[in-house]
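Contributing: when you submit paired examples, paste them exactly as shown. First protein:
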Amino acid sequence: MCNIMGKLQSKINCSTSKYRPDDYVEDDSPAQAVQQYIPAHTDAVTSVAALTSDLCVSGGNDKTVVVDNWRSGAVLKRFVGHQREVTKVACVFESNSFFSASRDKTVMMWELHRNSGPSQHFPGHDLVVTGLAVSPDSLQLCTGSRDNTMCKWDIETGECVRRAAISRNLVTHLCWVPAEPFVIQTSEDKTIRIWDSRELQVAHTFPVKQYIQTYCDVSQDGRYCISSSNGFGGEGCEATLWDLRQTRSQVREYKGHFQTTTSCVFLPKGLGLTPVVATSSHDCMVKVWNQDNGACLATVCLDGSGPLASLAVCDSSTLLCASFNSGIHLLRINSIKGLELQEVATF
């Protein structure tokens, strides 16, 4: 086990005006020092997920899966086994196992306290695996790929128990609906589908969007889904809120990013505000939105980060953001004087 604490350094979070609106007002308060730890990965970080109240798991273009203590920046363990870049990681919160998908067409299961190799291997896709979702009881796994297929796996045996293919369904992301046998899926064909995992059949398809759908998340109460889409120059860069109940219709959009919106997550209650959601984008910005009226409540620009790839919720006031150039960013939400979003560390 590696116990790399990393030498603390200071990094000033400089501002940028590249993507700011015309009416933006510069904050005159002193810049906050950002603690910089030894990076978890040696290349772009493509996905991050919260594993426990202290630990996160991430995957990157360096083909590795890493478990970090996000509070201290310490690398606890590094897992090697994929032959190509890791595209997604997924886990059930407060568990000891987690999963990684890769461009090598496989998915692997890892154990936090296992010292050598993956504990389970899931081969079967013909192209890069781009979607990964584990059931809340940790017994089933759903995967999706650019080969247009969805697969359901028995985690204990590693057997593929269901497979379904839809033409042009280039999967971009999967998420499991809490306490339900349903999986939400986004695709490059601009469609969001709800799958019934029991027979792996499409139970519902939302109206086709104008742009490729890149990511999705489901609220903890299972009432809403949010999806994000690609775009450029402010067009198509929104996130969309969907009703998962009887109407299953579009509720509202969150517009304000200037490039592809790559990730969108629901934040747990605890900020003393109305429900909020967060988004990340290729424009280097993370935004927090009022879920009910679509107003942007806070924005942080991670200068020098390159495209932002993935968000993970640690608790009601802490977010992790994976980036292409500068590792994993630890963000804090402060609601004492209005809502503020600050970068406090990178690793």
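Second protein:
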Amino acid sequence: MYDAAVLIGRLQPLHQGHLALLHEALARADRAIVVLGSAHQARTPKNPFTWQERAQMLRDALPQAERARLIVLPMRDFYDEPRWAQAIRQAVAQNTPAQAHIALVGHFKDDTSGYLRAFPGWDLIRMPRQGAIDATPIRDAYFGATPTTLDTALAPLAQYLPAATRSWLQQFAHTAHYPALQEEWRVLRQYRASWAGAPYPPVFVTVDALLRCQGQVLLIRRGHAPGKGLWALPGGFVEPNDTLWQSCLRELAEETHCPLPEARLRAALRGQQVFDHPQRSQRGRVITQAYFIDLSDDTLPPVRGGDDAAHAEWVPQDRLTGMEDQFHDDHWHILDQFLGLLARPLPP
């Protein structure tokens, strides 16, 4: 018997495959620890439910006696596997006795299951895949329906959905979040369909500008889906005849009307970094080059939204930590990388 058995997943939403892994964890250990990924993110068609909502789905699907043996740990996507794995280790250690005997429960379904190898020292309990279902077709059926057609849309998948999850999905379809997520879902499907005939999936290149001045950071509100209404760094796709730097300057001017000349921005350039995690964008494979420009104590340049930006604003840096769930894609983590918004996990 293990002290704890760990299950890592996004559970967007909880289905019978997840539940089978959870029952195995509870059968093999005193406690089951479910690490809920993609916590603290904005709602998107891929991550439509908050970690608190998913935790409730889990508890609703378990008998009362087993709920007391369940620990739910929210975990953000760091887009950095070593950092993410160490953060999980620290969180589990804080919820288990010293020298605890720990197991990791999971199954290798595809390339996204490689994280199961990131925890040497934990026994791996391999489970066979529970049927051919995963959460993606459930979300597609869900967002392709309406509140009145939901039962019919989910009927072919009913065997894969715990009763508590199905009830929860029906209730959520009557909230304001549902139509907003449907709009995002449709835009992303159309976006992917536009290049579906390409011989290979395309790789997109973008740029982002992180401007800081007087302790404030320049942000935009996105005007269109995907990410409509969310905060983001000024940026966009690289034009065919532009260098990365030229594209950065162009996007900055178009989206914020920042009046500073190129020479001043180049003199204030303090760093640049490529962000290329395969899952950083729902649009597909998007690699971005981010530029950190620190204007120090210069006069705060006037800005206003333009082009794809509904709004542009200087936001105090000390507010950013509490805004994590309001950002598009991984832009909050880009800010964290340059500005150190989060304390780093302790080394193993």
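If you have annotations for the second protein, write them as plain sentences, like these:
The chain is about 30% helix and 20% strand.
The CA atoms of residues 1 and 28 lie 6 Å apart.
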